[in-house]
Each structure stands twice: as C-alpha cells, then as structure tokens.
Design brief:
single chain; Serine Threonine Protein Phosphatase 5, Tetratricopeptide repeat; 0% strand; rod-shaped
Length: 303
C-alpha cells in the first residue's frame, strides 16, 4: 500500500513539474519529449526525498531478488522439464528396445517351435518311411527265404527220395540176382514177394512170380498174378505168356491160344518158347495152337 502511495506522490510531483513547464511555454504550445528531457536536465532540486530514494533502492533490490528467484525457478522448471523429457525419452527408448527384444524373442520362439515341429515331423516322416521300407524289405526277403526254403525242402525231399529209390533199386537188384540163383521155387517166390514189398507195381516181379507159381502147380494163383500185372501194363508180353500157360494148365484151351497169340504179337520169341513149354503139351494136337506156334513146320509138311 505504501509502495503505491509513494508512486502516486512521485507521479504527482512529476506532473506538477510538467504543468509548470507548460505554463512557461504558453497555452498554445504543447510539450514534447525534448521539452520533458530538457526540463529534467534543468532541475534545480531532486524530485524525490531520501526516503523515496531508499524506498526505490529497496524496491529495486527486492525486484532484482524476485527476478533472480523467478529466473532460478524458471531454470529449475526448465531443468525439470528437460529431465522429465529425457526420462520419458529414456523410458520410451527402453520400452521400445524391450518391446523390440520381446518381439524378436517371440518371433524367434515361434520360429524355433515351428522349426522344431518341422524337424520333428520330418524326423517322424523319415522314421515312418524307413520303417515302412524296412518292413517291405523284411517281408520281401522273408518271402524269398520262404521260397528258397521251400525249394531246398523240395530238393532235399527229392534227394531223400532218390537216395531211398537208389537204395530200393539196389535192394531190388540184389533180390533179382538172388531169385535168379535160387533153385527152389518157394525161395524164388519169397524173393519176388520181397521185391513186391518194395515195389508193389513191379509188373516183371508179378509175371515172374506167376511163372514160379506155375512151377508149383498153382495155375489159379498164377492167373490172378498175371491179371494184376496186365492191369498195370496191358502190353507186357511175359504176363500174357504166363497167363496163357495158366489157362492151358486148367484146360481153358481157347483162352490159352488167344492169350498166347497176344504174347506172340508183342514178341516172336514167345512162339519158340511155347513150342517146347510143358504147359502147352496138351495143346500140341490142337489145330489153332499148331497154326499159331508151328507155322514153319506146317508149311514144310504141306510142301
């Protein structure tokens, strides 16, 4: 309040001075800035008292201090603003780097997961493909080994059969040799039976056994053996010849001649055998027998 009062007093004194100066110049002339400056220079006494001067000095000092405080406050606020901006910038940069790092880490994790899944899927597919191929190869080689095993088994069976057949053939040959060396018809029949045990369908053994049976006067047995042999081999001449002998032994002359004719058709050697065979002794005078057996003799007699 005192400040305003002193300012008013100073202004009033200055205005009084200006009014006095205006009166000196006259009413028709206006004051200019130069007149005011000139009047200030020509003042004879100061316009203010020591009290006013002290007040002005205090006010200037207070104003200077206030300006310094204001400047310091302004500088402090500017510094705070700059620090705040720097802090925000640093925080923004830190957050940006952090988020960018998180983004890179997330992308890397996704790529790693995708890559791991791809590698795992690839590994699984390769494993499945390898297992499938191995299984196919195993099945293929099992089939091949099974086929080879079957072939080896068949060949082994054939070898065993051949070995058994060789042994059987050797034994049969030994029995044939034994039968040819035997003088007893019973022993011959026993040898032929052993041959038939080894080879039930041996036609030669059946026909030669029939021959031995005829020697012991068993024509019906011989007929059975010959018929059995002829079922196996209808073109066997020896079986036909022995059957003809058996028919002659029991008096079936016509059957004997017809069967003998079949034997001679197969081999002419049976004609000579029949001419001297005791089984056909009763047929010597039989016309059909003589016409069949003694053709050359009948031709010479007619001549």
């Amino acid at each position: 309040m005192i400040r305003y009062f002193l300012a008013f007093v100073f202004a009033l004194a200055f205005a009084t001075t200006l009014q006095a100066q205006q009166q000196q110049l006259g009413p028709d002339k206006e004051l200019t800035a130069e007149d005011v400056e000139e009047s200030i220079k020509t003042l004879e006494k100061p316009m203010y008292t020591p009290f006013v001067e002290l007040y002005l000095l205090d006010e200037s000092k207070a104003l200077r201090k206030e300006m310094q405080d204001t400047r310091a406050e302004l500088i402090e606020k500017v510094v705070e603003k700059e620090l705040s901006v720097a802090d925000k910038s640093m925080s923004y940069a830190t957050d940006t780097v952090t988020y960018f790092f998180y983004l890179i880490a997330g992308a890397t994790s996704i790529l790693v997961v995708i890559g791991w899944n791809s590698i795992r899927d690839m590994r699984h597919q390769l494993t499945s493909l390898a297992e499938k191929r191995v299984n196919e190869l195993v099945v293929e080689y099992e089939q091949r080994l099974k086929f080879i095993e079957e072939q080896l088994q068949q060949k082994s069976e054939i070898i065993h059969q051949n070995q058994a057949e060789i042994e059987r053939t050797n034994e049969v040959h030994a029995l044939w040799l034994k039968a040819s060396q035997e003088t007893s018809q019973q022993n011959k029949i026993a040898a032929y039976d052993q041959i038939l045990d080894l080879r039930p369908d041996d036609v030669e053994a059946l026909s030669y056994k029939a021959d031995a049976v005829l020697e012991i006067r068993e024509p019906l047995w011989a007929i059975s053996l010959c018929q059995r042999a002829l079922k196996l081999a209808p073109d066997n001449g020896h079986a036909h010849y022995q059957l003809a002998c058996a028919y002659a032994e029991i008096g079936r002359w016509e059957d004997a001649v017809a069967t003998l004719e079949k034997a001679i058709d197969i081999s002419e050697a049976y004609r000579d055998d029949a001419s001297v065979d005791p089984s056909f002794e009763q047929l010597q005078d039989h016309e059909s027998f003589r016409n069949l057996v003694f053709i050359d003799q009948d031709d010479s007699t007619d001549a």
